[in-house]
Write a structure and sequence with these properties.
The structure holds two protein chains of two kinds. The longest helix of chain A is centred in the middle third of the chain and has 36 residues. Chain A is an alpha+beta fold. Chain A is about 50% helix and about 20% strand. Chain A has eleven helices and nine strands. Chain A folds into three domains: about 100 residues, Acyl-CoA dehydrogenase/oxidase, N-terminal domain (Butyryl-Coa Dehydrogenase, subunit A, domain 1, Orthogonal Bundle), CATH 1.10.540.10; about 100 residues, Beta Barrel (Butyryl-CoA Dehydrogenase, subunit A, domain 2); about 140 residues, Butyryl-CoA Dehydrogenase, subunit A, domain 3 (Up-down Bundle). In chain B, the strands form three sheets. Chain B has a four-stranded mixed sheet with strand order 1-4-5-8. In chain B, strands 2-3-7-6 form a four-stranded antiparallel sheet, with no helix packed on it. In chain B, helix 10 packs antiparallel against helix 11 and helix 10 runs antiparallel to helix 12. Classes of the chains: A alpha+beta, B alpha+beta. At the A-B interface, helix 7, helix 8, helix 9 and helix 11 of A face helix 9, helix 10 and helix 12 of B.
Chain lengths: ~350, ~400
């Protein structure tokens, strides 16, 4: 048993954290997060050069990582900086390409951007009720349907799309130029897109892709949980600082027991959140990954909302302003629940065993 | 980052399992499973069994006859004894007084008292709380006045757990009143047979007799019974508080309670189906299961930290807070699972009464009420939050 990071992962974490602090400060973050295309191509390349994307894939796929802890370390650092870059899309695409055996070189070096299109408006989170359909057409296939809230969809060169083919869930590749992409900014920053498919040309990658898609979802869930954890920790640091400096009634407001005890409860939930992220990371490449990722996303959803709401409340009016970073952290912590399954969705998954 | 146990730890678990499955008598595990009060005989028998294996003093170093176990081994012991429904080790002599004497006691005290704890000859109880000194322990008033070679003790202690079985009591007493409250407290050992001591039961919420109040009227105790120096008692009390901390999360007990609730829900018919298929009930089980899964890791992380630093830190208060919330939630679910069968007072269910559930589940409501204590004793959850505020948040 050992709860310390390995030297390599500690370096990865330090490198990315330092890079983001120096190169992706909060003003820059906000300018990217809320302005199309919600992506800074130069920073993306720099992060790829640091090996951040290569951490998603194992050595035999051209990377140097691929374990749950590689994923959690990277996304915790991204969450701490509230980085809006579409790293989640790259991670999920890398997991899918591992299943198809495709060459990932251009993904891992950052030169080609992928987005993963699974969810639909009436089936936003799971794989059971997807309606987008595929049919054979000439030498290849065509797809029809609408994929919703595809993260990083605006800047993607290629989409990996889940669609029903002959009654089973299959995986296709669609070139961005072939589909109608309707992009938009998100409530908490960053970009997504609706992908409209109407007899759209597609290349079949996997005829039975259910397991591969579930694995990509699991990795994505773990990544979001770690991202949330990073955002929670930073948010909490801001709050403690505020409690120690903000004076009302002649004293620092951190002297009030009613706030102290609530702050302790937040700390407790953050520690629980870290524990469940560790557990999910340890299980990501094992047989119970779906269950532990679901557990993590449920707990993170609850904890994230608590940290967000309490942080805003205890900061008072200042955290309601656009200018103060706590507001943006608060938004991200709540909106993460809308990505890849909310607390209820994942609770139901745990209940199902 | 490595979450698995070492091969040595796995072997240790296997050894415990084979002992528990072969040597734990059924009448003991049945009594634990029933969930009511355990008799003194059962606790003594269990202690003797463990002592025979050299496994009784789980927190003591080997030089004093303890196991010398690491915090992780102690965690494994808790999990396995819970899995097999072995009784909890009575902590007062073994996890409380023992370590105090090993750290602050004289050689003579160590040599005479520790072996008697191990042999079961002496059953110790704790005299800390008073009617006016609960969370604010330092305000305790029980007075010990020096008179020649003795102290004369007057006052009252309360919440003395299992004092009705005890031979001796270790007490915090006031030896100086002209100073800060913390600076005038001493730690002293008292034989309960000494004239002037009266113990009275306190009946608890569920009807059980678990705790007592102890009255001291001119009780004469030799000054050699002092542990540490006069007025050093607060230091010892604080040491004890930090020493008690591994196992404070009660993870093994919550794992046991979760399995019980699931089994109960699987076997309970309700509204045309099984209770486990009721989505409202199943959702509550799932949520607490998730919290417990996280708690297991939080607990291991803190054990790992304690093992690295040599002592548990103040962050272990988190284990007490969250661990108690989880355990109490499971108790609540067990009570609800019984439906109307939770209604009868413990012991009032008879075999001929088919309206109610099996007698071994009939204590769920009593257990629920009794375990409200978990978030109150050993420093209430509010006190734990104060500790964390000071030490971790530095507010």
């Amino acid at each position: 048993m050992d709860f310390d990071l390995t030297e390599d992962r500690r370096m990865l974490s330090d490198t990315l954290t330092r890079y983001l602090a120096e190169q992706y400060g909060f003003e820059h973050r906000n300018s990217v997060a809320y302005t199309a295309p919600y992506h800074d191509a130069e920073k993306w390349t720099e992060m790829a050069d640091l090996g951040i994307l290569a951490a998603f894939a194992p050595e035999d796929a051209g990377g140097f990582g691929g374990t749950g802890f590689d994923v959690s370390v990277v996304f915790e650092a991204l969450g701490r900086a509230l980085c809006p870059e579409p790293m989640l899309a790259a991670l999920m695409a890398s997991r899918l390409m591992m299943a198809t055996g495709a060459d990932q070189e251009t993904l891992l070096d950052g030169s080609r951007k992928y987005a993963v299109a699974i969810g639909e408006i009436e089936c936003p989170y799971g794989l059971d009720y997807l309606a987008t359909s595929a049919s054979a057409h000439g030498d290849g296939h065509v797809l029809s349907g609408r994929k919703t809230a595809v993260y990083g969809g605006q800047t993607a060169d290629v989409f990996l799309v889940a669609a029903m083919l002959n009654g089973s869930l299959a995986l296709f590749e669609v070139a961005a130029n072939d589909a109608e992409i309707v992009g938009y900014g998100m409530m908490d920053g960053g970009g997504a897109a609706e992908v409209l498919l109407d007899g759209t040309r597609a290349k079949l990658l996997l005829a039975d892709a259910r397991d591969a898609l579930q694995d990509a979802l699991n990795a994505g869930v773990l990544a979001l949980c770690a991202e949330s954890l990073g955002a929670m920790v930073y948010s909490y640091e801001m709050l403690l600082e505020y409690l120690k400096t903000r004076k009302q009634f002649g004293v620092n407001i951190g002297r009030f027991q009613v706030l102290q005890h609530r702050a302790v409860d937040m700390l407790t939930e953050i520690e629980q959140a870290r524990s469940i992220v560790i557990k999910a990371a340890a299980e990501l490449n094992g047989p119970k990954a779906t269950r532990y990722c679901a557990m993590a996303k449920n707990l993170i959803g609850r904890a994230g909302r608590l940290i967000s709401e309490e942080s805003i409340q205890m900061h008072g009016g200042i955290a309601m302003t656009w200018e103060y970073p706590a507001s943006h952290y608060g938004k991200r912590l709540v909106m993460i629940d809308h990505q890849l399954g909310d607390t209820d969705f994942h609770l139901a998954a745990v209940m199902a065993g | 980052m490595e979450l698995t146990f070492s091969p040595e730890e796995d072997a240790f678990r296997a050894e415990l399992r084979s002992f528990l499955s072969d040597d734990l008598p059924a009448h003991i595990s049945d009594a634990v499973r029933a969930g009511g009060e355990l008799s003194k005989d059962i606790m003594v028998e269990w202690h003797a069994l463990l002592a025979g294996k050299g496994w009784l003093a789980t927190t003591w170093p080997k030089e004093f006859g303890g196991t010398g176990w690491t915090p992780v081994q102690r965690q494994i012991f808790e999990e396995e004894t819970c899995r097999f429904y072995a009784p909890r080790i009575v902590p007062f002599g073994l996890s409380m007084l023992g370590p105090v004497l090993q750290t602050f006691g004289t050689k003579e005290q160590q040599d005479t008292i520790l072996p008697r704890i191990l042999s079961g000859e002496d059953w110790w109880c704790q005299g800390y709380s008073e009617p006016g000194a609960g969370s604010d322990l330092a305000s305790l008033k029980t007075r010990a006045v020096r008179d020649g070679d003795d102290y004369i003790i007057n006052g009252q202690k309360t919440w003395t757990t299992l004092g009705q079985h005890a031979d001796k009591i270790f007490c915090l007493v006031r030896t100086d009143v002209d100073c800060k409250p913390q600076a005038g407290i001493s730690f002293i050992l008292v034989d309960l047979d000494t004239p002037g001591i009266e113990m009275r039961p306190i009946r608890l919420i569920e009807g059980g007799h678990e705790v007592n109040e102890v009255f001291f009227t001119d009780v004469r105790v030799p000054a050699t019974e002092l542990v540490g120096k006069e007025n050093q008692g607060w230091t010892i009390a604080k040491f004890l508080l930090s020493h008690e901390r591994t196992g404070i999360a009660g993870v093994g007990f919550s794992m046991q309670a979760l399995e019980e609730v699931k089994t109960l829900a699987r076997n309970t018919r309700r509204g045309g189906g099984m209770l486990i298929d009721d989505p409202l009930f199943a959702a509550r089980i799932a949520q607490v299961e998730i919290d417990l899964e996280a708690m297991k890791i939080t607990n291991l992380r803190m054990l790992f930290q304690a093992q690295k630093q040599g002592a548990p830190g103040p962050e272990t208060s988190i284990l007490k807070i969250k661990g108690s919330i989880i355990y109490q939630e499971l108790n609540d679910l067990a009570r609800r699972a019984l439906g109307s069968s939770a209604a009868p007072f413990p012991g009032h269910v008879t075999e001929g009464n088919i309206l109610f559930g099996p007698p071994d589940t009939a204590n769920s409501a009593a257990k629920y009420f009794n375990n409200r204590k978990i978030s109150i004793f050993g420093g209430s959850n509010e006190i734990q939050r104060n500790i964390l505020t000071k030490t971790m948040l530095e507010l």
